[in-house]
Design goal:
The complex is a heterodimer of chains A (106) and B (176). Chain A is α+β, with helices and mostly antiparallel strands. Chain A contains one helix and nine strands; from the N terminus they run αβββββββββ. In chain B, α1 packs antiparallel against α5 and α4 packs antiparallel against α7. The chains are: A alpha+beta (106), B mainly alpha (176). The interface between A and B is small, with 10 and 13 residues.
Amino acid sequence: MMPGRLAPIALAVIALSMVVPARAATIEITMENLVISPAEVSAKVGDTISWINKDFFAHTATAKNGDFDVTLPPKKSATSVLKKAGTVEYYCRYHPNMKATLKIEP
Amino acid sequence: MFIRWSAAVAAAILLSGPALQGATAADKPTDPQIAHIAYTAGVIDINAAKQALKKAKSKDVKAFAEDMLRDHEAVNKQALALVKKLNVTPEDNDISKALSKQASDKLAELDKLSGAAFDKAYVANEVAYHKAVNSALETQLIPSASNAELKSLLQTGLKIFQGHQQHAEHVAAELK
C-alpha cells in the first residue's frame, strides 16, 4: 500500500540478512587423538570458534596470552566468540604437546 | 639408586613377563591378559596420583598428579567399556601380579617421605614407571594384541603416556 516507505526497509532487511552471516562465521577446530586440527586457522573478530573434542580425554584450549581458556570434557564441544585481533598461540593445559595457532583479523 | 633399580625391574618384569610363567614362556600374552595388564598399570598410576594429591608440596607436582588421575581414569574407563563390548573377561596373570606387588611396595616406600623429598621421589618414579610401561606397550603388548580395537586403545594409551613421560621429565627437571 505504501511501497515508497516499505521498499527501503525491505531492502535493508535483505541487505542485513546477507551481510550478517558472511561477517560472523563459525569455525570448527577439532581435537582428536591428541592433535588439534587445523593447526593454524584464520578468523575475524566476531567469528565463533566451535571447539570439538572427539577424544575420551578432557582437553583445554588455552591461549598463551590469556585471551581464552576453554575446558572441553571428553566427547564434548564448546563455543567462544573472538573479541580481539591478533595471532594467538594456544595449547592444551593437560597435554602441552597439543599446540596450534589462531590468526584473528580485525 | 633405588629408583633406577625399580625401573629396571619393572622393565624386566614387563618385558620378560612370559618367561616368569615357566614352561609356557614362548607364549605371548593373550588379549584377556593384555587387558588385565593395561588396566592394572592404569590403577597403579591412579593410586600413585591419589597419594601424591595428599602428600605433594609443589604446585606443579600436584597439577601433574591431577593430570595423571584424569587421563588414567579416562583410559581405564574406556578399557572397561571395550572389554564389556567385546565380552572379554580380563585375566589375572603373573605380570599383573608382579606389577601390583611392586607398586604397593613403592606406595609404602613413598608414604614414609614428605615435603620436597616426596615430590622428588614421586616424580622420579613417574618418569621411570611411564618409561617401563611405554616400552612394554611398544615391544610386547601392542604387537601381541590380536583384537584391532584393543590394539588401537593400547596405541592411544602409548601416545598419551609418552606425553606423560615427557611431562614428568619436565617436572623432574624443574624440581632440581
